[in-house]
C-alpha cells in the first residue's frame, strides 16, 4: 500500500503521546529532524530558568544552595534519568560533559581492574573504529597518560571474538551516531564479563530515544548526553551510571571536592563520598542542570513504551516513504531496516549529501550531514509527528525531482552532534 | 580619627567605579559580602539568557552553533578574562570546572615534565596544607591514578625551601580562601623555575578581585573560577591559562573532541588543536558560558586600577572599623593587615563564629563561615559600597553588644565557596 499524507495525519490523531509535543516551543515552519543533535526547547524551561536566575541567583544568592536545593540537583536529575535507561535510583548522576565522564569512568575502571587483577596484564580498552570520535579520543588520551593501557579497535562484527582475557574494558556507543545501528548490549556485556572485562556503554544516542535496560543487561558503567533526546539545552550537563555493585570499589580519578564524603568540612584529605556522589568533581553547573531537569521531566512524564514504539514507527515509515518516493535518486539506506536494531534515526547515503541537506534546511527541514556522505534524520518521539515524516520526505523528493539541491547555498557549518 | 557613616558616604560619592554597581541586580535590604563565594547577578545577564534560550536555542536550534557563534564562546570568554589576570589573548579558555581544569593542567604538566626530563625522577607536586580542598583532593586523585607522582604539602613559610629538584609542579592558590593571604606569585614562580619545576596558580579568589600578572610573574599555568568575582552565576564554567611557550608541548589528558584539530572531520585519531583550544574537552556549556560572558563583560568595562584599589581600601576600612568598634568582643584578625598581602576579603576568628554569621544573615548582612571559627567577608569591588562596610560592622557591633547572636537560628547550610 502506498502511504498518503492523510494516513499520517490519521496516525497522529491516534498517537497516545501526541500531546507531549505541546510541552515544546517549536519554531513555526520548521520540521526539526535534528533532535538527535540538539533537542528542542521545553516550554517549562523558560519559566524555570527565569526562576533560577531572577529569584534564586538574583535575590536569594548564596542561600539558594540550600533554600532552592541547588546542592541536590546532580542526584535529583540523575534519579529522573535512571528509569529511562534501566538504572535504579542512586546509580546515575548528572555531571560534567560526556567526554569528561568517559574519562572518569574508564580511568576508574582500568585502575579498579588493575587493583583487582594484579599481575594479570589486563590492559586493553576495546572499542570499534568509527565509534563517536570523542570516545576514541578520550581513550587515546587516557592510554597516553597511563602508559600501560592500550586502546584497541575492532570492527563491530569482530568484537565478540576480540574479547580476550587481556581486555579490561569494553567501550561502545549503544546507538551508532552515524548509522543508527544498535549494539546488542546484553550479549556483548555478557561476553565481556565472561572474559573478566567490564562494559562501559555510551548512551548519547539512546537515552530518551529507545528502550535501554542497563541493569537488565548487567552493564557495569554508562555515560550519556543531556542535550539530545533529553532536551537539556545546548551543551547541557551529561550523566553517568555506575552499577551499584561497583560503587564502593570504583575510585574517581577526578576527585574534586563535590565528590568528597564531607565537602564542607574542608579537610585536607580526600575521602570519597558513598555511592554515586563521588563521581561529582567541581561545583555543579546550576543553570545548566536546572534546564536539564526540565527537559528530563517532560520525558519522565510521558508513556515510555508508547514513546519508544513511536520512535521505531517513525523510522520505519520514513524508510518506507524513501522506498516509495526516492527510489530513482541514488540514495542508499545506511541504517538497519529492522527497527529493533536501529536507534531513533534514519541515515541515508548520497554522494551529493551535503548539498541535499543544505537544500532541505533552506526549506525548513532540518536534518544534518556527516562526512563523507551521510544524511541523518533524527526522530525525537516527544515532538515529531507522523505528518512531519511525510512532509520531510515530500520536500526531499521535490528537491531531487526538480534538481533544486544543485542551487543550495553552501556554507560552513559546525556540526555538533 | 574615628570613622563615621558620613565619611563612608563621602568615599562613595568620590568613588570612580561607583557606577558599576548599577550593572547589578541586588536584592533590597541585603549587604552582600559573599561575592567571593557566589557573585551577584548582572542586569545584562537576564536579557542575554532570554536571548540564548528563547531565540538561539528555541527558534534557531542547531543552527546557532554558527549563527549565534556558540562555537567560539570558550575562546571569546577566555580572551575577555585574559587582561584581568595578566595573560595575552589566546592563552585563556573557559571550560569545565575549576576542579577538572586543575586535573587537566596538572596531569598535562607532570607528563610534560616526564617527557622532557626523562630519568630525572621529577615526581613531586608541591602544595601547602590548608590549600582549598579541591586542589589537594584532585592532586591526590592524580597521584593515585599515575602511581609515580607524589603530592607533598609544606606550610607556606617553608615552600621556597621545599622547592627541590624532585618537584615537577608547584600548585598554589594565589589568595587563600580562608585567610585571604596572598602568595608572592613572582618570587615563588621564579624559585620553582630555578629548580626546574613548573608553577600552576589557582586564581579562584584572585580573578576580578585584585591585580594579577601571570605573564609578568612568568607563571606557567593557571586555573580559576567563573562564579565568584567574575559573576558568571552558580556553578559557572571555570577558566584555565597556559603560557604561550608551553602550548605546543602540553598535551591535554582529557582529549575530548572539542579540543581536536578538526572536530567536525570525525576522524578516529586524536590530533590536538593548536594553542589553547586543545584544552576543551566536551561540548561547551552554552547557557553557562553566555552568562559568564556577561559577568566578565561588566568587569572588563570597568577601570581595573580603580577597581582593585577599591578592593584594598574596602578591606582596610573594614579592619579599621573592626578595631574601632569590636575591640571588646574577642575577634581575632586572621587575614593580613597589609592590603598588598591580602585578597579582597577580611577573615576574622571568633569561637562563636557560626552563630554570629547566622545572626548577621538574619539581618541581611551576608558573609560566610568556614569551620572551625572563621568569619569571611568578601568585597566584590564592582558592587560593594563603602557605606556597606560601615553598615556591616555596625550590625556586627550591635549583635555583639546586645548578645543577639545567642538567639540566631542555627540551620544547616551548604557553604559553596
From TrEMBL, chains A, B:
It is an enzyme of class 3 (hydrolase). HAMAP family: Kynureninase. InterPro entries: Kynureninase (IPR010111), PyrdxlP-dep_Trfase (IPR015424), PyrdxlP-dep_Trfase_major (IPR015421), PyrdxlP-dep_Trfase_small (IPR015422). Catalyzes the cleavage of L-kynurenine (L-Kyn) and L-3-hydroxykynurenine (L-3OHKyn) into anthranilic acid (AA) and 3-hydroxyanthranilic acid (3-OHAA), respectively. The keyword Hydrolase applies. One of its GO terms (molecular function) is kynureninase activity. PANTHER family: KYNURENINASE (PTHR14084:SF0). The gene is kynU. Its EC number is 3.7.1.3. It holds the Pfam family KYNU_C. Pathway: Amino-acid degradation; L-kynurenine degradation; L-alanine and anthranilate from L-kynurenine: step 1/1; Cofactor biosynthesis; NAD(+) biosynthesis; quinolinate from L-kynurenine: step 2/3. It catalyses: L-kynurenine + H2O = anthranilate + L-alanine + H(+); 3-hydroxy-L-kynurenine + H2O = 3-hydroxyanthranilate + L-alanine + H(+). Belongs to the kynureninase family. One of its GO terms (cellular component) is cytoplasm. One of its GO terms (biological process) is NAD+ biosynthetic process. Coiled coil: none annotated. This is Kynureninase. It comes from Nitrospirillum amazonense. Its cofactor is pyridoxal 5'-phosphate. Keywords: Hydrolase, Pyridine nucleotide biosynthesis, Pyridoxal phosphate.
Amino acid at each position: 500500500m502506498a502511504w498518503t499524507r492523510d494516513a499520517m495525519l490519521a496516525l497522529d490523531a491516534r498517537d497516545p503521546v501526541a500531546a507531549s509535543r505541546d510541552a515544546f516551543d517549536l519554531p513555526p515552519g520548521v520540521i526539526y529532524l535534528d533532535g538527535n543533535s540538539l533537542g528542542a526547547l521545553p516550554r517549562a524551561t523558560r519559566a524555570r530558568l527565569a526562576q533560577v536566575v531572577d529569584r534564586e541567583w538574583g535575590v536569594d544568592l548564596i542561600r539558594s544552595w540550600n533554600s532552592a536545593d541547588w546542592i541536590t540537583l546532580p542526584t535529583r536529575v540523575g534519579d529522573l534519568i535512571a528509569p529511562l535507561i534501566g538504572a535504579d535510583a542512586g546509580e546515575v548522576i548528572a555531571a560534567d560533559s560526556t567526554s569528561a565522564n568517559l574519562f572518569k569512568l574508564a580511568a576508574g575502571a582500568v585502575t579498579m581492574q588493575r587493583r583487582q587483577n594484579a599481575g594479570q596484564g589486563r590492559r586493553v580498552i576495546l572499542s570499534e573504529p568509527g565509534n563517536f570520535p570523542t570516545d576514541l579520543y578520550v581513550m587515546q588520551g587516557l592510554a597516553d597518560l597511563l602508559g600501560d593501557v592500550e586502546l584497541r579497535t575492532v570492527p563491530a562484527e569482530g568484537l565478540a571474538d576480540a574479547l580476550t582475557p587481556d581486555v579490561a574494558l569494553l567501550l561502545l556507543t549503544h546507538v551508532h551516531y552515524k548509522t543508527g545501528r544498535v549494539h546488542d548490549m546484553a550479549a556483548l556485556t555478557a561476553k565481556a564479563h565472561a572474559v573478566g572485562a567490564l562494559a562501559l556503554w555510551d548512551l548519547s544516542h539512546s537515552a530518551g530515544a529507545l528502550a535501554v535496560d542497563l541493569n537488565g543487561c548487567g552493564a557495569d558503567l554508562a555515560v550519556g548526553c543531556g542535550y539530545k533526546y533529553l532536551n537539556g539545552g545546548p551543551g547541557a550537563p551529561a550523566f553517568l551510571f555506575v552499577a551499584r555493585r561497583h560503587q564502593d570499589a570504583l575510585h574517581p580519578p577526578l576527585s574534586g571536592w563535590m565528590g568528597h564524603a564531607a565537602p564542607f568540612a574542608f579537610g585536607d584529605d580526600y575521602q570519597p563520598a558513598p555511592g554515586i556522589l563521588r563521581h561529582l568533581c567541581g561545583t555543579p553547573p546550576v543553570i545548566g542542570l536546572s534546564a536539564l531537569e526540565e527537559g528530563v521531566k517532560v520525558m519522565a512524564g510521558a508513556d515510555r513504551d508508547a514513546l519508544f514504539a513511536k520512535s521505531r514507527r517513525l523510522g520505519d515509515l520514513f524508510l518506507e516513504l524513501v522506498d516509495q518516493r526516492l527510489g530513482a535518486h541514488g540514495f542508499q539506506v545506511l541504517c538497519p531496516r529492522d527497527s529493533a536494531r536501529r536507534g531513533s534515526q534514519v541515515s541515508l547515503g548520497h554522494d551529493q549529501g551535503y548539498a541535499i541537506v543544505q537544500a532541505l534546511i533552506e526549506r525548513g527541514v532540518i536534518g544534518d550531514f556527516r562526512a563523507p556522505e551521510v544524511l541523518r534524520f533524527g526522530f525525537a518521539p516527544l515532538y515529531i509527528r507522523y505528518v512531519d515524516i511525510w512532509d520531510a520526505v515530500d520536500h526531499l523528493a521535490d528537491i531531487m525531482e526538480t534538481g533544486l539541491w544543485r542551487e543550495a547555498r553552501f556554507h560552513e557549518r559546525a556540526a555538533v552532534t
